[in-house]
Amino acid sequence: MDDEATTLGGDEKYDLAKVGAHWQQELERGQRYFKSWVDRCTKIEKIYLQQADQQSVKRRFPMLWANVSVLQPAVYARVPQPVVERRFKDSQPVARMASELVERNLAFTADDADLDSLMRAVRDDFLLCARGTVWLRYEADFEPLDIGVEPSNAPGADIGGSPAEQITDERVCMDYVHWSDFLHSPARRWKDVTWVARRVPMTDEEFDKRFPEGRASLAANGAGSNHGTNQTERAQNEGKTYVWEIWCKSENYTVWIAEGSPVALEVSEPPLKLTRFFPCPRPAFGTLSTGSLIPVPDYVYYQGQCDEIDVLTKRINKLTDQLRLKIFYPSGDGSVSPAIEKAMRPDNDTVMVPIPEWAAFTDKGGSKAIVTLPIDEVQKVIVACIEVRKQLVEDVYQITGISDIVRGDTQASETATAQRIKSQWGSIRIRDRQAELARFARDIVNLAGEIICDQFQPETLMLVSGIQLPTAAQKQQVEMQMQQQQMMQQQAAMRAQQMGQPAPPPQPPQLPPEMQKMMEQPTIDEVVQLLRNDSVRGFRIDIETDSTIEPDEDAEKQRRMEFVQMVGGFMQQAGAIAQQTPMLVPVMVETLLFAARGFRAGRQLENTLEQVGAQLSQSATAPRPPPEPTPEQMINLKTAQVKAGAEEKKAQLSVAQAQIEHQATVEQARSDMAAQALQQFQQQPPAYQ
Fold first, then answer.
1. For the range 649-657, what are the long-range contacts, defined as Cβ-Cβ under 8 Å and sequence gap of 24 or more?
2. Is 498 exposed, middle or buried (0-12, 13-18, 19+ CB in 10 A)?
């Protein structure tokens, strides 16, 4: 049994023969479950493509094709545009950069996988068979690592590579799955589905490359070939092997098994760790009941009217063939018959026809000699059939909800308001279909975004998006350079102090502009860590609501103009307020950022607005230098200075004069005291007497 077993992590083994027998029974059960729906869809597809005998095609009224052609651009018009937004639109540089990276990678993936053609194929299946499906895959190319080089993250174990290999290219592939090639377990609700499967046609080369040892199993069991039921299918299936790819959520494994083979080709763990396990979104379903997931095509509801329309169309065509001028005239009279025949020939442009035996002609009643088939009655029947068919067509429009305004059939006497009301009510019936296809497109982009976040390498994320972010090592190297500059400044200050010189003032580290910008950005390691962590992934993926319905080539231009007008008007009003009340500048900066984060076009300028806003807030709260005086103020200031100088000199002169007068008074007082003392001395008698 070792040759028919494959290991799934640890010691657990699966018997390929046992697993193959089990899944052959499950596939047969699923095919029986959908058999009536598949048979019905096959007939509807033949009617839509007019795949019948040529005579029958001419007698059919292409009602199904006409209705589908009207609904196709109404439910889907252009490729959806992925929009990745932060869950909370506040200042989160890492989350903002992560959303920008994922959005650009999703836009590239949508173009590379030709999402538009996939959505159009799903739309056609959705309108014809009421179910459309897409399958997503992750592919990576590997090359051997050089000796001594360690692999980065090395996710090779999840996708088939080995630790000794590195990824050179990786992509998300989106495969359209035909409605007849998709199966799932019978269930009432999609959340109750336990397994999904798709049938993959493989050429011999593809099969041998994917399953090197599977050819012997096919040869032993005579399975894998599917020649088809008609010439077209046999031509398409020639040289191909049909293999079922099955994802089982209940058992948490994937199975590859050839159609009709009792032995599985491969059993392995799921190559992708997806949130909802399945690599395909919930199919785009049409009409469903609450009892099963077997859809009902729209054509079923008006097939009876279409059959009656085809019957009337055949009848009208047959009656139209009878609208020919048929004439009866007597052929026995050799003298009159040749003249009548000559007159009724289509190539006879002569007005006058000679009658050799005029008497015989008049005896037979003249103009009564010929009798025409009464085609007036046939014409009345044709008109009646056309009226009945027209009523049936109107009944079909009522059933399908295609109003006259949707089909462009209106009256000149109707007002614009009346046409708008009819358009609103006419589109009510297709809004659910539009929403279903928009939901399906959003689920596709969500799955692709999840694969990108979980699998893509940092180099791929930056290469595809065109955004270069620094690594943690690069930032650490720049920080070390800044620390070295600070240490050099400290050493210079210490040497100056030792020499008794004044220390130079400290200077902030000087960086080139590109390094300064690099230091302001988050590292790619932080971004990848956020993308890899599902529990803290701070963004959501959304699609513009009208991007899949109404084509608008100027949508991006309009969004940019609205953003510019908003910013311009806000700054014009905020400038006057900032001059009067500088304390309100931080509030106005936060208000501007709050408004800018609501615009997708403003996300690229959000980082710049945050930097400018921080500078404005800092300058508004910092003490301001005195304003520069005007020329008039300068003249007045100089005049005041001159006047003040004159007053000061005058005051100084007054003080000097007062000091001189005070000194003179003091000297006079001293001289008076000296004279008085001399006089007293002279008046006293001598002591020796």
1. none
2. exposed
pTM score over 0.85: no
Residues 6+ apart with CB under 8 A from 546: 552
User: How far, in Å, CA of 321 to CA of 432, rounded?
Assistant: 45
Q: Are 214 and 179 in contact (CB under 8 A)?
A: no
| pLDDT tens readout for residues 61-117 | 888 888 888 888 888 888 888 888 776 666 677 877 888 888 889 889 998 988 989
Q: Can you name the residues that pair with 15 across neighbouring β-strands?
A: 5
**AA identity, residue 172:** V
| Residue among 70, 85, 74 nearest 542 (CA) | 85
180 HSE (CA, 13 A, CB side): 13
Q: Which of the four pLDDT bands, split at 50, 70 and 90, describes residue 176? A: very high
CA angle at residue 360 from 359 to 361, to 5 degrees?
90
Q: Which residues fall within 8 angstroms of residue 523, CB to CB, at 6 or more apart?
A: 469, 470, 471, 472, 474, 475
pLDDT mean across residues, the chain: 75
Report how far residue 199's alpha carbon sits from residue 278's, in angstroms, rounded to the nearest whole number.
15
Q: Where are the alpha helices (DSSP H) in 471-541?
A: 472-498, 513-520, 524-532
Q: 150 is written with which tokens?
A: 């360690």
Question: What single DSSP character describes residue 521?
Answer: S
Token look-up 């997708």 returns 600
Which of 111, 90, 157 shows the shortest CA–CA distance to 538? 90
Which contacts (CB < 8 Å, 24+ apart) does range 181-188 have? 182/131, 182/133, 182/283, 183/27, 183/30, 183/31, 183/34, 183/244, 184/30, 184/293, 185/26, 185/30, 186/29, 186/30, 186/33, 186/292, 186/293, 187/292, 187/293, 188/290, 188/291, 188/292, 188/293
Quick one: which H or E segment has residue 602? none
- What pLDDT is attached to residue 508? 66
Q: b vs e for 233-253, b when ≥16 Cβ sit within 10 Å of the residue's Cβ?
A: eeeeeeebbbbbbbbbeebeb
Structure tokens at 381: 């029947």
Please report where in the chains the tokens 């077997």 appear, as a residue.
294
Sign of the CA dihedral running 606, 612, 613, 615: positive
